Amino acid sequence: MLTKQNVNINFAQGLDTKTDPFQVSPGKFLSLQNSVFTKGGLLKKRNGYGPLTALPTPADVATTFNGNLTAIGSTIEALSNGSSQWVNKGKITPLTLSVIPTVRSALNQTQCDSVTASNGLTCTVYTEVNNTTPSYKYSIQDSVTGQNIVLPTVIPVTSGTVTGSPRVFLLGGYFIVVFTNVISATSHLQYIAISTHMPTSVTTNADIASAYVSATTLSWDGVVVGNNLYIGYNTTAGGQQIKITYLTASLSVAIAQSFVGSIATIMSLCADVTNASSPVIYASFYDLNSTSGYVVAVDQNLNKLMTPTQIISSGTIFNLASTAQSGVVTVAYEVSHAYSYDSGIATDFLDKVSVTKPNTVTIGTVGSTVTFIRSVGLASKAFLMNSTMYMLGVYSSTLQTTYFLFDILGNVIARFAYENGGGYLRVGLPQAQVIDDEVKIAYLYKDLIQSVATSLGSQGAPNTSNIYSQTGVNVATISYNADTTSVSEIGSNLNISGGFLWAYDGQTINEQGFHLFPDNIEATWSTTGGSIHAQPDGATNTDAYYYRVTYEWTDAQGNIFRSAPSIPVAVTTTGSGTSGSITIDIPTLRLTYKSGVKIVIYRWSVANQTYYQVTSITAPTLNDPTVDSIAYVDTQADASIVGNSILYTTGGVIENTGGQAFTATTLFDDRFFGINAEDRNLLNFSKQVIEATPVEMSDLFSIYVAPTIGSQGSTGSLQCIFPMDDKLILFKNDAMYYINGTGPDNTGANSQYSQPIFITSTVGCSNQRSIVFMPEGLMFQSDKGIWLLNRSLESTYIGAPVEDFNQYQVNSAVNIPSENQVRFTLSNGVTLMYDYYYGQWGTFVGVPAISSTLYQGLHTYVGSSGNVSQETPGQYLDNGNPVLISFKTSWFNLTGLQGYQRAYFFYLLGKYLTPHKLFMEIAYDYNSSPIQSNLISPTNFSPYYGDVSPYGQEREYGGPGDIEQWRVFLTKQRCQSFQITLQEIYDSSFGVPAGEGLTLSGINLIFAQKKGFRPISNAHSVGR
């Protein structure tokens, strides 16, 4: 006779998806949903999530600012506690920027273009200058690592001289490089085709046009539509005309369509693919000689759709960029311009005009011309992203040439190559290649800056010829998504990563600091109209006064932001002993989201050798972004300004610069830290943030973290950063480092930050949103799952029990202060819950989230559709749907993995709380398909006192009580193993709202061991 035995199994051992499912120990679960561990050995239902006011538009990031729930998507929305309404605080464009260098040499590159194939190879073409001799070249790189696949190669031209610039397009399986080749004094438009799969396979030169009129400003352009490369060009063959043709993927050239009488020195092609089966190709062109520009259109077969439609009738235009959608082409063009006070300083601006295609082959309908952004020139062709037109622009000056990405409304959404851009592009624009939600743009970057011997003024005013800059070529990848948006609240602002560092002060969203400082300042002395005394400087009456200018702005929190000051500008005073005035001409700040910016002027003199403010505090000189410059007349004697505010850099204080584009941000040592998006080996940090001061960034405050450090070999670039105790943890993909110490003072001196120190580990992290601090240290998602870096800097695989979820990205990680829990929201809609007191894992299902945060001390979700849900203690509904417990146990093989047991029945013990049912399924012998199912319907619901008859049936008077205990007989008692799946059920017929249901304490198995092994049939036996 078999001896019955019993085994008690409690229900608080959590998930285990790491172990072989057949060998998971009893008490652990293969699935566990909507349960928390509040007491040892007990399963209890989690709280529900109740709806808050839904967002008007979906958001990607949930956070708080000054305790207010804040959502970040295409706008910043703040929840008003009083009205429970979302308030739109302004537009923001989430971006992720990355950069790879593609061309570096001892020579100067003056023009570039690039395109990337689906296999990740990037072909870069460029014009390179040796002394004054240019040549066309191409090279091919890996778009991720920058590794050269094909070294720089000269594009063959017959005469050895080049005109215009090369461009490259992706057509089928080829990189098509198009360029001008002068043959027998005639310009030919030619191409070579480079195989994207075998990049050493290159065709010989072939003609697109055997005669066309070339121009250094590029009198041709192309656009790929489907399997054709459409090319428009200027030609006098057969008379002056514009021609449009196309090159097929099989490398044949179509017969061109002609627009007789049209002339182009600059051309831009784009396509309207709103109707993909009937694309429209637009050619916009401008003639520098007649100062007129037009647009024409053809269909995919080169049939005319619109005759030349004039869009420009005057002015000097250097570049065109265009996009088209829904029958309307929009053309942006760069207008040559200069400051009114100095015609030698170029300050181009951009106009735009739209043309609607007619229904018949006539001219189109032209809209109004609008100046939509000032002080920049075009630096790329235009592109469409989510139906919005964007383009790259360049602010060009001697000291701070910088690229800006902006939309057709003139809104700046990214800034890079600060002070290192290549300047205005007069010989052709690089294309903007759109791939899904990314755009890739090549640009010129100053990779060598050398000083040239020259003299300086006594206050450091430079001669503009004292700098030599050589450019190389970079390719920027701009991702239009918020997957890596990082936020840090410090300096009474919410600082948000993106195409540059954004700052939200609770009222408006602006750039952190200023994109640019005032430059090209000029000052002129007049012997009339003021009380400024002419003063001698040494032995002469020159350079007695110097001026510096800052842009300054006060946010809604009272913080004062200051730009870097301008370079000192000297004033020559004449007429010793006389008095007069000084007129300072100052460029306005046109690239800003800020309103109410002050232009603040400071003056130094031989008599007062401190920069004192001369502009009024009570009647400040305000910035006007609709004009290029303002003139300020200084009439005040030295004695009148002594005691005014002094320039903040006095005493060697480091100047402020605008916030860079960052990929990840955090706080450490009372400072803001960020990983530089343009150089991910560079860690930038702010000045120390003290009370009533904003975040103040400086290019000089940085830590270089080499991709190769010590004996660890190459560990790659920085990915994430997060503080822990007195250390800042630096995460790479598969490695970790830390720095500690205190940073420099505001003069840049006395830094005690350590060098990056390697943490012995084999994991890293590339997901900033997955990092969360809990009592034992930092939890984070690595490529190997969720790991823990404890406070002793030891790494452990804490997420092994939930390894089945490693394939999903963690969207947010939050430590719940009212519980002993960390919760990770995943990209599949599941929330992982880790109880760090019991060391156990579970899952929450029912409220999919793309981000979460703590709001009013409660876990708060934001969903993909804009729904917002907040944990509601004591309630068990997820936005009206009941929260239901479910689990799947391990396989109970109590006599060994392949033993043989007789399982009679088991007891289920719990506590009844509110009406529910339980649906139970049982599978046997490692076959996951259940063969037994039972519906358990508890009857011990006790209504409130007095609600039922007869009197005395309530729980207080002898009702059924709250203990829930069931005995479940097994229908297949002789087995190797069995597995229990339990699902709570709520039925609206209960007549009461869904509630807590029950708690579960465990099961008690009654079984007997039959023999040490299970008999197996001959059909499954071998070896005899």
Keywords:
single chain; Methylamine Dehydrogenase, Chain H; 1024 residues; 1 helix; Jelly Rolls
Protein topology:
Layout lengths: L4 E6 L18 E5 L1 E2 L7 E2 L2 E5 L6 E7 L2 E6 L1 E6 L4 E7 L4 E8 L4 E9 L4 E10 L2 E10 L5 E7 L12 E5 L2 E10 L2 E10 L10 E4 L10 E6 L2 E8 L5 E8 L8 E4 L5 E7 L7 E8 L4 E8 L4 E9 L4 E9 L2 E8 L2 E2 L2 E5 L2 E8 L8 E2 L3 E4 L3 E2 L4 E3 L2 E8 L6 E6 L4 E5 L15 E4 L2 E14 L15 E13 L7 E4 L2 E4 L5 E3 L4 E3 L10 E5 L5 E2 L11 E10 L5 E3 L6 E3 L7 E9 L10 E8 L6 E2 L15 E6 L3 H4 L20 E7 L2 E6 L5 E5 L10 E8 L15 E5 L2 E5 L4 E5 L16 E3 L12 E3 L2 E6 L2 E6 L4 E2 L13 E7 L4 E6 L4 E5 L4 E5 L6 E5 L2 E5 L5 E5 L4 E2 L2 E2 L3 E4 L10 E13 L4 E8 L7 E5 ...
Antiparallel strand pairs: 1-83, 2-76, 3-4, 5-73, 6-7, 7-8, 8-9, 10-41, 11-12, 12-13, 13-14, 15-16, 16-17, 17-18, 19-20, 20-21, 21-22, 23-24, 24-25, 25-26, 27-28, 28-31, 29-30, 31-32, 31-33, 34-36, 35-36, 36-37, 37-38, 39-40, 40-41, 42-43, 43-44, 44-45, 46-51, 47-51, 48-49, 48-50, 48-52, 51-54, ...
